[in-house]
């Protein structure tokens, strides 16, 4: 079995293949870096069509990351996939909304998802905030509501819940909000997609 | 914004939609539970066609899980996505091949991926082993080689690396091996897919 073993070479070659297969479908440079990293993570070229990055998103995110911010994820998977070394260099911190015993207890008592309860706690953080929601539509609905109520002004919302119940609808709500956002319209998305988007932004800070 | 908030209800409704949209495409009961959970995790019905479960895989995996085994993942993301509560009830343990300072150091020195070096360490474990490879083709190639050399006899290989360089080829190699395996042919797969497969098996032990 002969195969490429060097991780850097594998990544470089992968991005070349993606660019080649996208063919005439091109993106502005920074948007392209994000979308190609999502395709790299999923091997699914549909993300070239469904990924929506609004006009404020990239500048706002890079500013927040460079100045140091708090990143909140809805799952431990999304948190696990984000490059901690680069985050640390930037003096940014990352937290998972559901990874907290108190949150679990309260969610059970109130019959809510842990991510909804975690979201309530996150909005109290006074630092610049980026929200990364790859799994739970309930967390994204809740965040949209807090935005409407003026309780939180995120510097970026990566809203890419995946699934069949509420995922599409929660992203449709995000699209109506005047906040910096990156989303994937329809049912597709997920924790790996969410992490890939944040990693693409992290690499742009360099 | 009206939406379903109860996680159990969301999951139940999701599986109903998946079954409905699969239409005349049906699977044997246990295979169906795995494949539908992968579709649930990705919102990608293509997994109904590309997921391959060999005849020994489910029995072998359930036996290993019920008796207590070691699960090795190639990424922290896959590890993060696997249900630890059920694993603990079963007296099974989970380890990540790359999450080790010694492995990092050695990989750098030898110019290899961390997952390849981690794999070398995993095969020394004397317990019953399940390998879960959702990202790194190099780890799956290495595992195939160790199987050929008689260094390891996994009770299950979940081999679902994603990507453009080596992913498809590494899975083609796995398909030729006489070991219990679950794979997704072609480029698609990933850490969320890998975790979904193990979770589906964990829920079948009950």
TrEMBL record, chains A, B:
Enzyme class per UniProt: isomerase
Keyword tRNA-binding: no
Residues in Cobalamin biosynthesis precorrin-8X methylmutase CobH/CbiC domain copies: 9-204
GO molecular function, one term: precorrin-8X methylmutase activity
E.C. numbers: 5.4.1.-
Single Gene Ontology BP annotation: cobalamin biosynthetic process
Keyword terms: Cobalamin biosynthesis, Isomerase
Pfam family, one: CbiC
Superkingdom: Bacteria
Signal peptide annotation: none
InterPro entries listed in its UniProt record: Cbl_synth_CobH/CbiC, CobH/CbiC_sf
Pathway: Cofactor biosynthesis; adenosylcobalamin biosynthesis
PANTHER family given in the database record: COBALT-PRECORRIN-8 METHYLMUTASE
Family: Belongs to the CobH/CbiC family.
Protein name, entry field: Precorrin-8X methylmutase
């Amino acid at each position: 079995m002969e195969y490429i073993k060097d991780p850097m070479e594998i990544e470089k070659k992968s991005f070349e293949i993606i660019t080649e297969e996208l063919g005439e479908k091109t993106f502005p440079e920074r948007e392209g870096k994000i979308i190609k990293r999502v395709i790299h993570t999923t091997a699914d070229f549909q993300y070239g069509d469904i990924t929506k990055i609004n006009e404020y998103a990239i500048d706002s995110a890079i500013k927040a990351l460079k100045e140091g911010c708090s990143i909140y994820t809805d799952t431990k998977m999304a948190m696990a996939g984000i490059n901690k070394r680069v985050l640390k260099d930037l003096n940014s911190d990352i937290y998972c909304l559901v990874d907290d015993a108190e949150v679990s207890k309260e969610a059970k008592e109130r019959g809510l998802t842990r991510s909804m309860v975690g979201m309530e706690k996150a909005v109290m953080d006074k630092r610049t905030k980026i929200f990364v929601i790859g799994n739970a539509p309930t967390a994204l609905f809740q965040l949209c509501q807090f935005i409407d109520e003026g309780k939180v002004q995120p510097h970026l919302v990566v809203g890419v819940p995946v699934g069949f119940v509420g995922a599409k609808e929660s992203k449709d709500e995000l699209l109506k909000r005047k906040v910096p956002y990156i989303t994937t319209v329809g049912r597709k998305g997920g924790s790996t997609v969410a992490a890939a988007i944040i990693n693409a932004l992290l690499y742009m800070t360099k």
